[in-house]
């Protein structure tokens, strides 16, 4: 089956006075129908830029330098601005980072949800819109009376649910959620993620969940992609990534996580992330990598290769396997 | 034994609105003492609105209590002399959540490190000052030559947060109040910062009050934990048993919501029993009763006292009413000192 959304050799650079910042570099990624894909990486690794690029929301000084974003077979990069605008919300929706703080404080929830529905060719009566708003609020487990409230009357979790209602208002096939629960308490986070999961199953949505919380990823996605310094370094099923990580970066990342079994063991990843302005030669991770060889330092950045069934890694350690 | 710093039955009420009639009880008769004999790491855990940050502010002497006492070396902190306050300010240090906001972007990072030395006259010469700074940076795992002389924006969040730890360290404090020190840094750096905090505790004998919403990290660095719910202690005790076998229904909810980074350890189903989100309802009884699946009539009538369930645990819940009652200020009995 063809993937619903795929990025093909996508590169996004920000042009600054000091040179281009390669925020996303040669990333290829497939999102299958009804799949929940997690995208993790440290801050500044380009994961939010990738999300924006998939929505074609990159603004100057950023630019999609090359590559394709295929949504249901249509390349978003080639569409006109107006065509892309029509695609958003009806085919692909974004829950941006800090979405709950981006609700308009002087507009009632009803108008904010209706805004996306009204902005279409089809004409809806007021009663139809009202019914749709009620239905949407119920689907995100909110009381329909919330429609008449202002954002300041809602808790963080409720605001996040309103953002979810807006995202699904035009029945998109793909939802990209950038750190949807990062500002919420653990209990609320858990409840919101349960709702996301239920909606995903009921509506057959495909979801890309972006974040750096590995715990949340382990609990809520099927596949996990790991980014480092603008590149995709590993992608595989969540079990593969957590239990048999291949890339040395992923291995270190997994080893830093707190587990219930062993108490009081800590390890950090030595070194710091490279600046994307002057990326090192060769593999971008080699200055911090414990297993780096001469090839890693001098040759081209390794490309993503499938090492075992749907488990891909970009690392010279696995060059011989394929 | 006199405790270094002790909150005794402390209540903090914030009031607002016209004639200050609208009041919020942020902390309700909470006691906790930090001893001097054995340095400990104690976690104060809770969600937003639990009063955990207010508790940190009270410990730091940033806020006076509405009622109850804050005792510093056995004496009332708020009746202390100027000189005693000076010693207190040196011995009790703070590390805050946001490593971006504590810096003035116009100064090099050296500024935050030299200030306390100058302010407390810790060094006699430029040379001595430089040595102190370098030692503190090395203690938190930073290389002085890569850190000094830079502006805050040239450093990563993790480096900045470690410099704030180094700054606290310069003053050779006895107690560090760390309010969500790692919630804004990446997972890979989180471990490094927690590691440096623990090193301070074990090697330099500094007690740490770790204020957090993240039970997973608390589990890893603390010995004791106190779980707050809407300003009251829900449960307290030895961290390992509290996390592995929570007693209070609220702690169960919290522990059940931890997203463990392990696909084999999935979220349980028990959370579904709990009702609603945090609604601040005024109740005469247990504050958690409106959400609690095991609430009994008595839970809605009067607030439960702390019951000592075993020698290292206490829970404020009527489910444990067969156990002996522990008066608030006796909570130290279940916490290892």
| Poorly predicted spans of chain B | none
Largest beta-sheet details of chain A: 8 strands, mixed
Q: Could you give a short account of the major beta sheet of chain B?
A: 9 strands, mixed
DSSP strand content of chain A = 15-25%
Helix tally of chain A equals 10
What does the average pLDDT of chain A come to?
87
Which structural class is indicated by helix and strand composition of chain A?
A: alpha/beta
H/E order of the elements of chain B? EEEHEEHEHHHHEHEHEEHHHEEE
Largest protein interface?
Answer: A-B, 44 and 46 residues
Q: Strands across the major sheet of chain A, in which order?
A: 6-7-8-3-9-10-12-11
- Rg of chain B, Å, rounded: 21 Å
| Distance separating the two termini of chain B | 11 Å
Measured distance between first and last alpha carbons of chain A: 24 Å
Going across the major beta sheet of chain B, what is the strand order? Answer: 6-7-8-3-9-10-12-11-13
**Proportion in helices of chain B:** 25-40%
Oligomeric state of the chains in view: heterodimer
Beta-strand content of chain B:
15-25%
- According to DSSP, the number of beta strands of chain A is 12
Shape of chain B: globular
Q: What is the helix/strand order of chain A? A: EEEHEEHEHHHEHEHEEHHHEE
Model description:
- Chain A is an alpha/beta fold.
- In chain A, the strands form 2 sheets. Chain A has an 8-stranded mixed beta sheet with strand order 6-7-8-3-9-10-12-11, sandwiched between helices. A 4-stranded antiparallel beta sheet of chain A has the order 2-1-4-5.
- Chain A is globular and about 70 Å long.
- Chain A is built from 10 helices and 12 strands.
- The two termini of chain A are 24 Å apart.
- The longest helix of chain A is centred in the middle third of the chain and has 18 residues, at 186-203.
- Chain B is built from 11 helices and 13 strands.
- Chain B has helices spanning 52-59, 82-91, 110-119, 126-139, 144-147, 157-170, 187-204, 215-221, 239-244, 249-257, 297-301, and strands at residues 5-16, 22-34, 41-45, 67-72, 75-76, 92-95, 175-179, 207-212, 224-229, 232-238, 306-310, 313-315, 325-326.
- Chain B is globular, with a radius of gyration of 21 Å.
- Chain B starts with a strand and ends in an 11-residue tail after the last strand.
- The mean pLDDT of chain B is 86.
- Classes of the chains: A alpha/beta (322), B alpha/beta (337).
- The interface between A and B is large, with 44 and 46 residues.
């Amino acid at each position: 089956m063809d993937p619903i959304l795929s990025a093909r050799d996508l590169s996004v650079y920000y042009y600054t006075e000091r040179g281009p910042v390669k925020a996303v570099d040669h990333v290829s990624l497939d999102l299958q129908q009804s799949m929940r894909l997690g995208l993790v990486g440290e801050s500044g690794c380009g994961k939010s830029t990738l999300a924006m690029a998939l929505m074609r929301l990159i603004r100057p000084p950023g630019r999609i330098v090359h590559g394709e974003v295929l949504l249901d077979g249509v390349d978003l990069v080639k569409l006109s601005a107006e065509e892309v605008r029509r695609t958003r919300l009806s085919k692909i929706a974004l829950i941006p980072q800090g979405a709950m703080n981006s609700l308009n404080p002087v507009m009632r929830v009803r108008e904010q949800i209706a805004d996306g529905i009204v902005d279409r060719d089809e004409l809806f009566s007021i009663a139809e819109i009202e019914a749709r708003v009620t239905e949407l609020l119920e689907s995100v487990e909110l009381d329909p009376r919330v429609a008449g409230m202002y954002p300041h009357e809602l808790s963080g979790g409720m605001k996040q649910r309103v953002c979810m209602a807006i995202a699904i208002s035009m029945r998109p096939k793909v939802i990209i959620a950038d750190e949807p629960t990062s500002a919420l308490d653990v209990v609320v986070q858990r409840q919101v993620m349960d709702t996301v999961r239920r909606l995903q199953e009921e509506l057959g949505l495909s979801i890309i969940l972006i974040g750096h919380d590995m715990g949340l990823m382990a609990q809520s996605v099927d596949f996990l992609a790991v980014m480092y310094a603008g590149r995709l370094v590993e992608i595989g099923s969540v079990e593969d990534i957590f239990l048999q990580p291949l890339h040395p970066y992923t291995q270190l990342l997994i080893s830093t996580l707190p587990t219930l079994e062993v108490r009081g063991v800590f390890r950090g990843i030595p070194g710091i992330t490279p600046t994307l302005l002057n990326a090192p030669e060769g593999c971008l991770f080699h200055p911090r990598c414990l297993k780096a060889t001469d090839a890693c330092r001098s040759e081209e950045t390794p490309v993503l290769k499938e090492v075992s069934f749907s488990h891909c890694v970009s690392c010279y350690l696995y060059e011989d396997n394929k | 034994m006199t405790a270094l710093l002790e909150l005794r039955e402390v209540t903090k009420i914030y009031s607002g609105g016209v004639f200050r009639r609208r009041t919020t009880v942020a902390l309700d008769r909470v006691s906790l003492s930090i001893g001097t004999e054995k340095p400990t790491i104690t976690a104060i855990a809770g969600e937003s609105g639990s009063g955990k940050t207010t508790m940190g502010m009270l410990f730091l002497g940033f806020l006076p209590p509405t009622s109850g006492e804050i005792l510093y070396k056995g004496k009332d902190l708020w009746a202390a002399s100027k000189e005693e306050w000076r010693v207190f300010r040196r011995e009790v240090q703070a590390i805050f959540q946001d490593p971006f906001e504590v810096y003035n972007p116009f100064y090099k990072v050296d500024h935050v490190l030299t200030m306390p030395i100058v302010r407390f006259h810790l060094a006699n010469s430029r040379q001595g000052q430089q040595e102190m700074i370098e030692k503190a940076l090395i203690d938190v795992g930073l290389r002085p030559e890569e850190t000094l002389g830079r502006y805050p924006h040239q450093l990563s969040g993790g480096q900045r947060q470690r410099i704030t730890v180094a700054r606290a360290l310069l003053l050779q404090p006895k107690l560090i109040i760390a309010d969500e020190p790692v919630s804004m840094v990446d997972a890979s750096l989180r471990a490094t910062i927690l590691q440096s905090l623990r090193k301070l505790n074990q090697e330099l004998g500094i007690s740490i009050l770790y204020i957090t919403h993240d039970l997973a990290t608390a589990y890893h660095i603390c010995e004791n934990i106190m779980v707050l719910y809407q300003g009251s202690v829900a449960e307290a005790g030895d961290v390992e048993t509290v996390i592995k076998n929570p007693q209070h229904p609220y702690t169960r909810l919290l522990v059940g919501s931890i997203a463990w980074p392990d696909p084999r350890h999935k979220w349980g189903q028990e959370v579904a029993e709990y009702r609603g989100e945090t609604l601040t309802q005024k109740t005469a009884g247990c504050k958690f009763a409106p959400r609690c699946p095991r609430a009994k009539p008595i839970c809605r009538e009067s607030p439960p006292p702390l019951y000592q369930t075993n020698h290292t645990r206490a829970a404020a819940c009527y489910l444990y009413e067969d156990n002996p009652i522990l008066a608030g200020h006796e909570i130290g009995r279940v916490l290892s000192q």
